[in-house]
Amino acid sequence: MWSFKSCGGNKGKGFLQCALPPTGTDEKNPLRKIGNVCFWVIFLLRLAIKTRLAGRIHCRLRPRAVPPLVLENVEEMIAAEDLHAEFQFPQEADSQFSSDADFEDFDGRNAKTGKGMQTSRRGKKMGGDKSKGGGAGRAPGVGWVNGHHKENGTEMMTLFEMVKMGKSATQAVVDDWIEAYKQDKDSALLDLINFFIQCSGCKGAVSREMFRHMQNSEIIRKMTEEFDEDSGDYPLTLSGPQWKKFRINFCDFIAVLVRQCQYSIIYDEYMMDTVISLLTGLSDSQVRAFRHTSTLAAMKLMTALVNVALNLSINMDNTQRQYEAERNKVIANRANDRLELLLQKRKELQENQDEIENMMNAIFKAVFVHRYRDAIAEIRAICIEEIGVWMKLYSDAFLNDSYLKYVGWTMHDKQGEVRLKCLTALQGLFYSRELGSRLELFTSRFKDRIVSMTLDKEYDVAVQAIKLLTLVLQSSDEILTAEDCESVYHLVYSAHRPIAVSAGDFLFKKLFSHRGPGEEGLPRRGRQSLNGSLIKTTIFFFLESELHEHGAYLVDSLWDCASELLKDWETMISLLLDEPMPGEEALNDRQETALVEIMLCAIRQACECHPPVGRGTGKRVLSAKEKKMQLDDRTRITEMFAVALPLLLAKYCVDIDKVTNLLQIPKYFDLDIYTTGRLEKHLDALLRQICEVLDKHTDSDVLEACSTTYHYLCNEEFTIFNRVDIARSQLLDELLDKFNRLLEDFLQEGEEPDEDDAYQVLSTLKKISAFHNAHDLSKWDLFTSNYRLLNTGLQNGDMPEQIVIHAMQCTHYIILWHLAKVSDGSSVKGDTMTLRKQMRAFCLMCQRYISSINTAVKEQAFTILCDLLLIFSHQIISSGREHLESLIYTPDSSLQAELLNFILDHVFIDQEDDNNSTDGQQDDEASKIEALHKRRNLLAAYCKLIIYNVVEINTGADIFKQYTKYYNDYGDIIKETMSKTRQIDKFQYAKTLILSLQKLFNDMSSEFGFTFDRSSSAFCGIKELARRFSLTFGLDQLKTREAIAMLHKDGIEFAFKVPSPQGEGGTPLNLPFLDILCEFSSKLIRQDKRTVHTYLERFMTFQMALQREDCWLPLISYRNSLQAGGDDDTMSVISGISSRGSTVRSKKSKPAAASKRKLPEEVSLPAEENSCNSSDAVWMNREQDISTPMMMHSPHLTSTVLRDPKRMRQEESCTAAFFMPTEQHHQQPATPQQQPLHQHQATIDYNTQVTWMLAQRQQAEARQHQERVNMHYAKMRNHMQQAIRRGPGLMEEDEEPIVEDVMMSSEDINEGIDFDTMDIDLPASKNRRERTELKPDYFDPSSIMDDSVLNVLM
């Protein structure tokens, strides 16, 4: 029944081969059959342990006796991991087991590998194919052919396809390749080589003959010839999730391959030598795809070898420790055989480590040293990223100055991606204090560069530089100087939030993380707590930074790392209210103001949970945890400040800055807590303090804060509304009664108001105006009293300006609240007519105040009038509000002119001339900025009227003409106005632009006369403005076709509008305007250029066409700009005559279809000559008549950069733009309308010939110039090819643009750094074996790179 056979082979290891007896064919009891099989399997495994056979049991089940189900169950039981864990085979001293090893499977599969390959093996049955390759002991029908796995005639996927698909585990793919390598090394290595070739995007494949008989350089050259040149993309650069996953799988494959082969295969002096040689050759290729892919593979291979070397180092240390322990025993207890085994093991480990070091040395010197300064930033980034990994993994071998210098040098790289990799690599080293202490020399050498990178133009680089400095700070406090830290401190105010947060973390660790010996026992909260001293430190830093208006930015920067400190409002309140302890230094007034501001900013940050304005893209969606924290913080704030806020207001009642900030805290309260927490008495105390603040202050900011606080507290949704509403009504009644009483005394006839009365009226009016901004005071009828006050001031002229300003502001609020009631439909009958009368009366009042003497009053009246004109424009009836049509108010021409004159007189002025608005403080920079801000607001108010079509668009001509002169002050406003106007009406926009240029031209002519120099700054400024105007039309010429044509029409008419005083032969006075008009010629399409040229000919005489003096240059240049790019290069300059019939072209320069379209154009031009009407309608009709019936197809642009000059035909290079007259075109028979023209042409035939001769002379000069250009191009092309090709190496005969310069000079990558490249010396090999099978070019870079590159890099 049983037969046992010991199978030899596999280096003397025995295998037990058994045949199980038949289990019968009884299908009624399958469980019994399975049980029998399991019993015998376990029995055989135990028998193998007893016989100590160093091999694996191979069970060959008889298929005819055992059902398939039982076979699968048995194989799964044999392959189960728990059985492996239970039955451990003993290992000999000289045997090493791993996945690559030494466990042979006679069927060519094991459970793990076979299972993993089930999902990855796909293919179609290859009919007639036989098994190729393979080796001794390999199962029939299994093989690897040209990178494709074949089994039983079925072609499977390649390594590249399996890694690309990612369906199979990398471990299973590597295990299959190892099995194939053990049976046929050459075939498996050929598969691996093709894997790297295919990963580079190459379509070719290395054959078995090429692998055996060709050197690496020859193979690479052959693959380069087969590379796909149609596209520059390859797998590592392709986008999409599949290719991103491929990159990950590619790196994992290399790492797993080395890990699985680390015990035997990598030391066979064949596989690793071949792979390293191939990658070295590919990494020096001028094909980017080869260079990029091979560099990534080589660097990942190096990283895997570093892991192997690290494991070997650990094993050597353990072996040495065991050897020392055994040797130190007494002689009686010492085991000499164990000492010998340990010595032998240490020797083997040392030899392996030498092998690994030699491999790493070869990769580093042949790949890294050259590629870390490659021309491609991605390749440089790969090198720097991996060297950081090496230094972190195996610091004993790599963390020294010989390797760190490459990271330091590359920090000067021009690409932010590479600089970023340098910083992240250094961060991985500084995270460990042990490694950071070994970087002192490097830090001292490159510290200044790291500090300067905090201001890098790439935000990501700057963030990582700050984080690196934070790690340096944690490793040692003595490395960074005070100046270095200060350069990071100010970044907490950066508008870029990641930079600010990183700087805040640096600031927190520098100033707040160090605790003195006396601070350990301090309480957690309160004035004497640790947070109290830290809050004081924050205040000191805030004041010393001298950026007091940016407290919100400082709080936001510190929020992520110091939120617990900034939320300690209890300590802040204690610092403000409690008396200092004996010996404690109290806060001064300036420090208390800063603390109140920081406290308010912290409250806002906690309740709003988003960065301040200008930092961040907007509000983000909060998570559930963040929402809960927000509610908890808001509850704490309400409970704490509901009690403390009245006390704080009482203490700082007279301080404007503190009170303004404190009054903003209630808007972050949860008002329900006043009721649920029974805090109504504290609410009453708060309302009393607000009333007291109103009595003591007249500052606008304080009054606005009080009004806003009342508006928030008077919310009908909360139960405290009635209590607050009663207090507000009492306050307003007192204010209004006081105002009416003071107004009567102030406006009494025959008495001059004294200053005290005026101050009382002004203070009361300020408070009413501030409250009217947020509260509806319509029931008190304030319009009559305010209008009376304004009318009296206008009649007498002695009203104080502040009273007039606030009266106009209050009246403005009255009209807006009245409009809100009318719009909502809550008003009674007759309110609309009342509002219309009040609005028109107030607009007239503001118009009269615009001509006032006082500048502040005029500015206020202008701003309010512009707002009212915009609100009550025709757009008021939109969105279903037709019942408000009676309220529309359109300004008449006199009002529009008055508004425009105000802008020209008060906005477009020099800074030094603005004496009134700065109150004699021109030297004060803040005053100048404030004055500029006011003027910008005035201009924006008027531009809104243009944008919303309240005033005529052409009134913007006086605004647009100031674009270049006042670009720094108002350029953004004017540009946005032009953009919106163009969107509204392109036609009117073009007329407005040409009108603005005409006004500038007239102003210049009035100042300098008509004989001005066209090279003067004034004329050049107008041309520059025209150039900028032309850019506003964009690139789509069809959308702006009519507008551009009308612009040229108006410009031509203006140029010939004023005739010459000298008579018909003189130059028109406005003719230089055509030079300005040339800036818009490029915006004309081809057909419209002919139309505009024909329209220009209507204004020209025959004598004008022949003039060549300087005064006629604008006409000549304008005509040339219209002819450039058109179908006809020799158009007649005579009015009404077309020379198309006599124009001769090269036969190959124009298709015949183009000449067929000339007949309608020739017929329409004479008909147009009879028309004298210059109106817009006639112009557009004429344009449609003259233009071609259908749009001409634009020719395909063909680049000649890559074309060899010797291959260019002479007619292509010389006559592409200039056409020689070789023959006369037959003219069409003249129509009756054309006969007078032919008669006129006969009289001027001589002049026409002269014109033709001049044109031919110009064409001859142009041909000579073109020939010189071609010669220069040929020389430049040859030099470029010589610079790209690097001697007789790779890519010698390739002329396609897939080659590129692969090296960067030291000056390019390290600007301003003077250093010498150090030699890299890894530990030398002690027991280096002779590599008899090694090909001569495996580790010799000189066989692949020429001497010039080696001299630069080595």
Automatic annotation (TrEMBL):
Residue runs in coiled coils: 309-366
Q: Where in the cell is it found?
A: Nucleus; Chromosome; Chromosome, Centromere
- Presence of keyword Chaperone: no
Region annotated Disordered, chain positions: 108-148, 1137-1168
CC per GO annotation: chromatin; chromosome, centromeric region; cohesin complex; nucleus
Q: Name one GO biological process term.
A: chromosome segregation
The entry lists its GO molecular-function terms as: chromatin binding
InterPro entries xrefs:
ARM-type_fold (IPR016024), Cohesin_Scc3/SA (IPR039662), HEAT_SCC3-SA (IPR056396), SCD (IPR020839), STAG (IPR013721)
Q: Which residues form the signal peptide?
A: none
Tell me where in this chain the SCD domain is found.
368-453
Its keywords, alphabetically, are: Cell cycle, Cell division, Chromosome, Chromosome partition, Coiled coil, Nucleus
Q: Its function?
A: Component of cohesin complex, a complex required for the cohesion of sister chromatids after DNA replication. The cohesin complex apparently forms a large proteinaceous ring within which sister chromatids can be trapped. At anaphase, the complex is cleaved and dissociates from chromatin, allowing sister chromatids to segregate.
Q: Which family does it belong to?
A: Belongs to the SCC3 family.
How it assembles, according to the record, is: Part of the cohesin complex which is composed of a heterodimer between a SMC1 protein (SMC1A or SMC1B) and SMC3, which are attached via their hinge domain, and RAD21 which link them at their heads, and one STAG protein.
For this entry, the protein name equals: Cohesin subunit SA
Q: Mind giving the lineage of the organism this protein is from?
A: Eukaryota, Metazoa, Chordata, Craniata, Vertebrata
